[in-house]
Automatic annotation (TrEMBL):
GO MF annotation terms: DNA-binding transcription factor activity; transcription cis-regulatory region binding
Record-linked InterPro entries: BetI_C, Homeodomain-like_sf, HTH-type_TetR-like_transc_reg, HTH_TetR, Tet_transcr_reg_TetR-rel_C_sf
Keywords annotated in UniProt: DNA-binding, Repressor, Transcription, Transcription regulation
Protein name: TetR family transcriptional regulator
PANTHER family: HTH-TYPE TRANSCRIPTIONAL REGULATOR RUTR, HTH-TYPE TRANSCRIPTIONAL REPRESSOR BDCR
DNA-binding region: 25-44
Domain of life: Bacteria
Pfam assignment, any one: TetR_N
Residue span, HTH tetR-type domain: 2-62
Length: 193
């Protein structure tokens, strides 16, 4: 059974995905999580604490569903690991839809919330660094700056494709096809360095 704080964070991700950050009310969150508002304040102090911890929660959850592998499966090549890590962000599952929607809502709210903006910038930087490291395993002779730039472009594109898919602008198979093409183009560009 999940801990109470995890239960609250799962509920917060659901509420943010459905209603956005501005629609997150502690009373509604308590009802969604099946806990008292006092328990939410006990664990998270205030609404900002809930938002910050929810951002961390969805990042951890995304890392889990993009990196968990069957221990009996053969190891992936660096290129397969890069592809899989990025493409698993475009899965038609409840968890991925909820995570991607909540991430998009948190990103949009960060425009007006300096604390959230700083937290989101740090989380984005970590993600870009992780993708740059994966790119570096595929193209080890590329410069650090070129890897970082390619990772920045790929993660930004992935966010945009995800939002278009979630909002019905494109089909998921097309989003995945576009992402594969972008990975291929970035790797080809890195060969020049």
């Amino acid at each position: 059974m999940a801990s109470r704080s995890t239960q609250i964070l799962e509920a917060a991700a659901r509420v943010i995905a459905r209603r956005g950050v501005r629609g997150l009310r502690v009373e509604e969150l308590a009802a969604e999580a099946g806990v008292s508002t006092a328990l939410i304040y006990y664990h998270f102090k205030d609404r900002t604490g809930v938002l910050r911890q929810t951002l961390e929660f969805i990042n951890d959850r995304a890392e889990r569903y993009t990196t968990d592998r069957d221990p009996d499966a053969p190891p992936l090549t660096p290129r397969e690991e890069l592809d899989e890590t990025l493409l698993l962000e475009l899965q038609d599952t409840v968890e991925v839809r909820e995570n991607s929607s909540a991430w998009g809502e948190l990103r949009a709210s960060a425009v007006f919330d300096e604390v959230l903006r700083e937290d989101l910038a740090r989380a984005t930087l970590v993600w870009v660094q992780e993708v740059a490291a994966l790119l570096g395993q595929v193209q080890p002779m590329a410069t650090a700056s070129s890897l970082a730039e390619a990772a920045e472009r790929l993660t930004a594109l992935l966010e945009g494709l995800s939002m278009r898919w979630l909002s019905g602008g494109i089909r998921i198979d097309h989003a995945r096809e576009l992402m594969r093409g972008a990975i291929e183009a970035e790797l080809a560009g890195l060969q020049r360095y």
